[in-house]
Structure prediction request, 174 residues.
Amino acid sequence: MTVGTSLPGRAAHRAPAWVAVGAWGAGLVGTAVGAAAIVGVQADPVSRSLGAAAVAHGLLALAWGAVCLARGRTVAPQAALAAALAGLAVAALLATTSPGTSIVAVGVFVALSVATGAGIGWGLRHPSRGGVTGLIAAAAVVAVLVTPALGSVQDAATTGPDGTYAPVLEHHGR
Prediction:
């Protein structure tokens, strides 16, 4: 799998293929953290606003990763770097202002965002040919990080201010 093509009049931006997978991981966790901030037991207007920003950022990261893999090159690398920094700012604000935010999930989000940004930056200076092996390894690492982070998001969202868990209602087929 070769990641990168030349465009007329432009240098090809070829970050390693794992960068798109890292963006997917960050997008999944960011969307989950944002959704939890919106509907969590301790949600307030500030948490809901930051949560909406985190959901939007997460969905954009998922879409960006898909477009990069589909085109075989890094799409809008400077904008992606700026978006990664904006996502880090939203995550930091959520972690410090929203009491029902999972610190584990925010840590995974930050780690994946920083790795993705570093991969984009590396690709700008050192174009990569990519490879299936790197893509598979990235998928495994992201799965190992994202799965427990998503579980911690649910736990944090259903924990009340006194430390008790809010009941999760089951609808039994409805």
User: Anything to note?
Assistant: The radius of gyration is 18 Å. DSSP finds five helices and no strands in the chain.
